[in-house]
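Work Package 3 (structural annotation) set out to generate three-dimensional models for the target panel prioritized at the project kickoff. During this period the team completed the workflow that converts sequence records into discrete structure tokens, so that structures can be stored uniformly alongside our sequence database. As a representative example, we reproduce one entry of 394 residues exactly as it appears in the project archive.
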Amino acid sequence: MLRRYTNEVMIGNLPLGGENPIRVQSMTTLPTTDTQGCIAQIKRIVDAGGEYVRLTTQGEREALNLKNIKSGLLRDGYDVPLIADVHFNARVADIAALYADKVRINPGNYIDPARKFLHLEYTDEEYTSELKRLEDRFVALLNICKAHHTAIRIGVNHGSLSDRIMSRYGDTPAGIVESCMEFLRVCVKHNFKDVVVSIKASNTIVMVESVRRLVREMDKSDMHFPLHLGVTEAGEGEDGRLKSAVGIGTLLLDGIGDTIRVSLSEAPEKEIPVAYGILQATHTRITHTEFISCPGCGRTLYNLQDTIQQIKHTFAEVTDPQLRLGHLSHLKIAIMGCIVNGPGEMADADYGYVGAAAGKISLYKGKECVEKNIPQSQAVEKLIELIKKYATPG
């Protein structure tokens, strides 16, 4: 898998795209006029590993208060880039661009009026006139962003396409992509490069197809803007996690994506571990040791689940520093119930713990068995010694 080439965009002091790691972000759920509440929530997001934080700015008061939130965070030692989320009011985007590190606008409602599900008939001349009106207003925002080094996200939502787009293209991936491309063409025409792009849908099939189509269209036009991935309104609990993993993970495996947000109906800091889990599972950003293990069967002659937890605990930060192995985040450790699943099924693991016989364990380094038939009572300690002998931090 090769990651798609994209331009680097500075979001505050943290670059996005290019060769930078795929970034993780979340969004506050409190009113942006609640300065202290937002600061506290942002701290929890950052402490969980979030790298960008978005806040809703539905009005001028909310946009102006970004300044107070930013200064409060800096006072407490949190220099996290803030993103303003703007809908329906282009004037609010202008104000937010003065204080936010990035402004998200929705093509479906930035210039076009609120969607009323009307079918509109345009002549080609009238449609061109609407695009000129879009350009004139959007360029005013681009000029403010240039002056203040503020990035922009062109964030299309499947559920909020304008009546204008719907009337000409229908509720289709073609319409979703064109809604985005209209704004990107203006950015290119006026040499504005600090742009991030997203297309989101609650339907994973629509989301994946639309993003793939957008990438093809951008490539045709020699555009290399970084992409923000997410399944919007994914839900909560297992449903939200599965939908996010399917939609985001599929595109990451295509080499597409520079930042991700997992949208859960839960406390925002809970989105962050899920995001890192998706990155880990797709091998697009390795942040912790990976453990693989078989499900166990009648051939398993030791307590597989207890052993997995014991080995994982050794890699956790809470263990004795003399034994701690959590800094070896690049490793893959296999824990297999019997010889049927090892070494073949664990061929790409760095180290393996394999049931050999009743009460006996064999240890592997790669595909090589380095210690056979160790008493189970000694096997975890021997595995740790083996890893500490050969492994280097990555």
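The chain has a mean pLDDT of 90.
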